[in-house]
Design a protein that fits this description.
214 residues, alpha/beta, five-stranded mixed beta sheet, two-stranded parallel ribbon, 32% helix, 19% strand
């Protein structure tokens, strides 16, 4: 760890130790990158966290909305805010649903602290129907106004439609045949050619113009 990294980490630790936030967690990787992680108890803490990070001259890199449990109709949504404080990466995560009712919670805008949050927050409102409050310019970015907000959460993923059940069953039968247990009803299917061979016709190669003159 360089002295600059050490000083930055100490500054981050000292700054957040004076707040009411939960303790930070730290990770690193084989390349010497350090990551600080802050998990908020509720979206209401987001504005205060943004204020503290702004005081540390943090840069907002990107914001990611995601679903914690896809099997629950996309109700368990969360947001991850990715910052950089010099060479230290700082990630703030917050669940944006009520833990008891699973109902979505409103999320305060941090555009007043980090102007580049504007695009991500508008995208969340438009495509995922996440309610962002106090946004200075809550206009749509891409979708037609006639489409419902959160339309992206109503689409069926392509991977769900083509989950490969048919291919999986056929592959299982191929493996059974290798072990000698394939039923008679499958043998014909397994040994049928995938394509019908078209008989090739013999054609003479076209003569060159020189040959024709001779």
């Amino acid at each position: 760890m360089s002295q600059t990294q050490n000083n930055t980490i100490d500054l981050i630790k000292d700054t957040f130790a004076k707040t009411a936030f939960a303790p930070l967690s730290w990770t690193t990787n084989d390349y010497g990158n350090f990551y600080a992680w802050l998990k908020l108890d509720s979206p209401a803490q987001l504005t205060e966290a943004a204020h503290v990070l702004q005081s540390l001259n943090a840069r907002l890199c990107t914001v990611t909305a995601y679903t914690e449990d896809r099997s629950n109709e996309a109700k368990q949504q969360a947001i991850a805010y990715h910052f950089a404080i010099k060479s230290i990466l700082f990630c703030v995560t917050v669940q944006i649903y009520d833990k008891e009712t699973l109902e979505p919670l409103a999320v305060p805008s941090i555009t007043a602290y980090f102007r580049n949050a504007d695009w991500n927050e508008r995208e969340f409102m438009e495509m995922y129907n996440i309610k962002i409050i106090d946004h200075p310019n809550p206009k749509r970015l891409f979708l037609d106004e006639r489409l419902d907000a959160g339309i992206m959460t109503q689409l069926i993923p392509f991977s769900s439609m083509v989950h490969g059940t048919g291919s999986k069953n056929l592959w299982e039968q191929v493996m059974l045949e290798k072990m000698g247990y394939v039923p008679e009803s499958y043998k014909q299917v397994l040994h049928e050619p995938a394509f019908t061979k078209v008989e090739e016709t013999q054609k003479e190669a076209p003569k060159s113009q020189t040959a024709e003159k001779e």
